[in-house]
Write a structure and sequence with these properties.
The chain is mainly alpha-helical and 118 residues long. The chain has helices spanning 15-22, 36-39, 47-59, 64-69, 74-77, 99-102, and strands spanning 29-30, 81-82.
């Protein structure tokens, strides 16, 4: 994804992940309180997944294991989302373009991603 911060598209980084890196001060977000528009910005979250999250969080606060059951790419998302039992540290800005290397999972998703390790 091309932006003012990233004028050239890096083909090694997934578009949603590139957006997350450019806006990392907004994260982590709490999946139990975040609006649907914000959840849709996260890698691996489409309209159906967001609808499942919205429906599930009406019943109770979602934990990391609940998100894994939804088959989300946990290795990517664990740095950007907070759940009832998971609070990642806030991401800091760096002048270096190598931030993607510091956060694993910025690559395009594999069709057969292994199950979520907790």
């Amino acid at each position: 994804m091309v932006s003012e911060l990233r004028p050239l598209k890096d083909r090694r980084i997934a578009p949603k992940f590139a957006w997350l890196l450019d806006h990392r001060r907004q994260f982590p977000i709490d999946v139990n309180t975040a609006p649907p528009e914000v959840l849709l910005r996260l890698p691996g979250m489409g309209p159906r997944t967001v609808e499942h999250i919205l429906r599930a969080r009406r019943q109770r606060a979602l934990a990391a294991a609940d998100l894994c059951r939804l088959r989300l790419p946990w290795q990517q998302l664990r740095y950007f989302i907070a759940a009832s039992d998971h609070r990642p540290p806030r991401m800091v800005d760096r002048a270096s373009e190598s931030v993607a290397a510091d956060v694993p999972g910025g690559r395009q998703l594999d069709l057969f991603e292994p199950p979520c390790p907790l």
